Amino acid sequence: MVPHFLTALTGPLLDVERKLLDTTPRIERWFRLEWQEHTPPFYCSVDLRNAGFKLAPVDTNLYPGGFNNLSPEALPLAVQAAMAAIEKYCPDARHLLLIPENHTRNTFYLQNVQRIQAVLRQTGLAVRLGSLNPEITAPTSLELPDGQSLLLEPLVRRGARVGLADFDPCAVLLNNDLSAGIPDILRGLQGQVLLPPLHAGWAVRRKSQHFEAYNDVAKRFGKLLDVDPWLVNPYFARCGQVDFQAREGEQCLADSVDATLKRVRAKYREYKIDATPFVIVKADAGTYGMGIMSVKDAAEVQNLNRRQRNKMAVVKEGLEVSEVIIQEGVPTIETVDNGTAEPVVYMIDKYVIGGFYRVHGERGIDENLNAPGSRFVPLPFAASCNLPDSAGSPECAPNRFYAYGVVARLALLAASLELERTDPDPSRFG
Amino acid sequence: MVPHFLTALTGPLLDVERKLLDTTPRIERWFRLEWQEHTPPFYCSVDLRNAGFKLAPVDTNLYPGGFNNLSPEALPLAVQAAMAAIEKYCPDARHLLLIPENHTRNTFYLQNVQRIQAVLRQTGLAVRLGSLNPEITAPTSLELPDGQSLLLEPLVRRGARVGLADFDPCAVLLNNDLSAGIPDILRGLQGQVLLPPLHAGWAVRRKSQHFEAYNDVAKRFGKLLDVDPWLVNPYFARCGQVDFQAREGEQCLADSVDATLKRVRAKYREYKIDATPFVIVKADAGTYGMGIMSVKDAAEVQNLNRRQRNKMAVVKEGLEVSEVIIQEGVPTIETVDNGTAEPVVYMIDKYVIGGFYRVHGERGIDENLNAPGSRFVPLPFAASCNLPDSAGSPECAPNRFYAYGVVARLALLAASLELERTDPDPSRFG
User: How far apart, in whole angstroms, are the C-alpha atoms of residue A359 and residue B229?
Assistant: First the structure.
């Protein structure tokens, strides 16, 4: 189950990992204090890339859809963390409404929903599924591979509350990232807790705002540990007015790619890293690995052919891309069964509950792995993330996983800051 | 790892277990609400006995000493639960003082201390060990089997605070049950959190007070589930003035044994249980399985020979027994590797974090297993306690373990009530 690491690592990252292990109590106390000031999202998954010389988050998902990929060991941790979360948001809750994505034919996704439902049930909630899908006009049973089934029901709005025909929940948990926009039926809810809040959806959220918040978190963390924040932080830039079809905004894109590559090159020189820097160009809003390019030179974004432009122009739900983030590419040195791999860490509330590797057999170490053909290898991450072996060397698996848990929680903390800063109703955070 | 269950169980217990599984959300919500009213002890272990026809706690330990017997899977759960607990008691804590038992030559016990220290370290605390042992007058290093070591240091009192020479902790965690009495150095602490409070120690605590509180919890739980509380509750009685050496109080003992056996016999008839009722006679204060008798007839306690009287007269630390609890004996139907077995469930804060089986090859199903010759079989309890398989039958292992987790938490809740009721300073619970 434990993946083979391509190489015995040396250089700066080992220094950071050694430091994480040696200063665990200080790090954990720092998180403990941060969580007194900031509220973590209900749940979150973070894609990490381990370059050997740096370890950084590259994507932070506030509607994690891979609970089915977690190993069984992760489930008790998930239940325990969900108990803590529910207790905070609605301590006397009896009913929770879970709103999944609309793709009802994706069996893997449905198993994810089943997992979330099972975890929440164990926290003392009756959990039912409400669908935003206009095709669901009556209760609809969906078969699962294990012979069980999921019952999707149409949402019903009553005054300032949303629910089902015979179900008035205290809390509403979205597992739908609202790429298609904020549905009216969810606007202006009162007396119900909506998790995560509407502005966490891709209709409002921007990756660049997340990584701006992450910048601040990484800086403070770097100060705490006396390390260069770049070792856990990818550089990024942003272009706000891009129209791939009309070829508008190409100059901003080229300039930003160039500027970011220059900054990365300087760091590579500083750390004597013998590799070619690259950046990832992707939609500032959106998910699902669509609209993503790996670029090594500014010229590449100025000469996109029609196929490339089409690919970049839209992401999920036909959402048009006009805002773009240019993010320092972090190569991965990890492989699982000869496939290129990157770790995905799952959290509920402020707790790391597990993770898995996303593995792609046909992609390179400098490419996006969230693409058709990828598979998932569950890992008993959690055991390792919470309990490093302080006597072992940094590259031994439990220690590496502890480091992953720390960096993933930095991104989680950044998500908290991001949601505070972008909240249209800041009174919420008092 | 999963123990063999002697028999495919039928009868009342299966009914209860089925009910526990079917009403999981209701049970978990009930616990959630209870924990809003009551504060769980920092940690707790509960000995359970599964008779097939009933499942009940027989001992609740507020200074659990077997963390070393838990499987590695339990550790991340322990860390997560300890994080939640520390956050509650002293959110900005940096230093914690752990006070272990005095038996410094018991390697198993020292490994337990090492485990607790490792878990707490992961919550962001610097943890050091302070000893009540008068022989520890200077920092003393104790070797552990894994080559690591524990550093025991003498306690230092400064005003209303206790610590070490160069260590002023925010919190003091006792893993010493104070059988020898409350030491002056721990009295009247101010500005420090002492966990658990002094009156949880055996100098003050009485088993009968615990089981009185458990009575109330079992009654309410029975009402919640519409089941006979006896199915999770052992009857008990108490004699306050017993002197085994002077043969005083024998009549109270005989009468209580008789009365308790009568009540149990009536229940056995009601449920058509074909077995001979027995009671366990043990010290009302104290631990470690000393001073324990299994009795089937009142006459047995009236004709104790000198050896038996000597055995009953003192428990740990030479504490004299004068108060006695007479508890309904719950036979165990569980075996592990042909040894008689009983489950021990571990909790931190309000969370089940794991457990193990206490196994004894030479003891019968109606005898105390906490005796020389017992061994421990760790079980991946937690996975099962929190996540029952609602499709499986009650006697399948995960479901049984969920039931164990529920009943153990009933005892945990009873311990909370008990500590509230016996608190010399009730303002603590507002």
Answer: 52
Contact A32 B94 (CB under 8 A): no
Angle between helical axes of B397-421 and B12-22 (0-180°, round to 10): 80
User: In which band, very low, low, confident or very high, does the pLDDT at B100 lie, cut at 50, 70 and 90?
Assistant: very high
Instruction: Give pLDDT tens digits for B393-414.
Output: 665 566 667 889 999 999 999 9
Residue B391: the pLDDT is 61
Q: Which residues in A lie closer than 8 A to residue B385 (C-beta atoms)? A: 76
Contact A28 B123 (CB under 8 A): yes
Q: Quick one: residue A251, left, alpha or beta (phi over 0 = left, psi -120 to 50 = alpha)?
A: alpha
* Contacts (Cβ under 8 Å, ≥6 apart) of A56: A48, A49, A231, A232, A233, A234, A330, A407
**Contacts of residue B80 in chain A, CB cutoff 8 Å?**
77, 80-81, 351, 386
CB contact under 8 A, A33 and B93: no
Q: Which residues contact B103 (CB under 8 A, 6 or more apart)?
A: B109
Q: What confidence tens digit (pLDDT) does each residue in B207-241 have? A: 999 999 999 999 999 999 999 999 999 999 999 88
CA–CA distance, A72 with B177 (Å, rounded to integer): 36
Query: Sign (positive/negative) of CA torsion A112, A113, A118, A120?
Result: positive
Looking at residue A10, its pLDDT comes to: 44
- Chain A residues near residue B1 by CB distance under 8 angstroms: none
Instruction: Say whether pLDDT at A183 is over 90.
Output: yes
Pick the residue of B1, B23, B26, B29 with the most A CBs within 10 A to test the interface with A by mutation. Answer: B29
DSSP H helices, B174-241, are 207-225
**Alpha-carbon distance A312 to A249, whole Å?**
13
Considering only CB atoms, which residues of chain B are within 8 Å of chain A? Answer: 24-33, 35-36, 72-73, 75-77, 79-81, 83-84, 86-87, 91-94, 118-119, 121-126, 148, 351, 382-383, 385-387, 391
The secondary structure of chain B in percent helix, strand, coil, rounded to multiples of 5, reads 35, 25, 40
Contact A24 B122 (CB under 8 A): yes
Contacts of A95 in chain B (CB under 8 A): none
Residue A384: the pLDDT is 47
For B158, the token pair is: 């400064």
Show residues of chain B in contact with A349, CB under 8 Å.
none
Rounded to 10°, the helix A397-421/A207-225 angle is 120
Q: How far apart are CA A82 and CA B200, in angstroms?
A: 30
> Which pLDDT tens digit goes with each residue over B337-365?
888 899 999 999 999 998 899 999 888 88
- Shortest distance between the Cα of B382 and any Cα of chain A, in A, equals 6
- β-pairing, B236-239 vs B324-328, is antiparallel
Find the helix or strand (DSSP H, E) in which B92 lies. Answer: none
Residue of chain B with shortest Cα separation from A381: B76
Say how many Å lie between the first and final Cα of chain A, rounded: 45
CA atoms of A381 and A389, how far apart (whole Å): 13
- pLDDT for A126-178, tens place per residue? 999 999 999 999 999 999 988 999 999 999 999 999 999 999 999 999 999 99
**Interval A337-355: pLDDT, tens:** 888 899 999 999 999 998 8
| B134 φ/ψ angles, rounded to the nearest 5 degrees | -65, -20
What's the mean per-residue pLDDT of chain B? Answer: 87
Best of B27, B77, B114 to substitute, by most chain A Cβ atoms within 10 angstroms, is B77
Cβ distance B369 to B280 under 8 Å?
Answer: no
User: What does the pLDDT look like over B26-57, one tens digit per residue?
Assistant: 999 999 999 999 999 999 999 999 998 899 99
- For B156-189, the pLDDT digits (tens) are 999 999 999 999 999 999 999 998 899 999 999 9
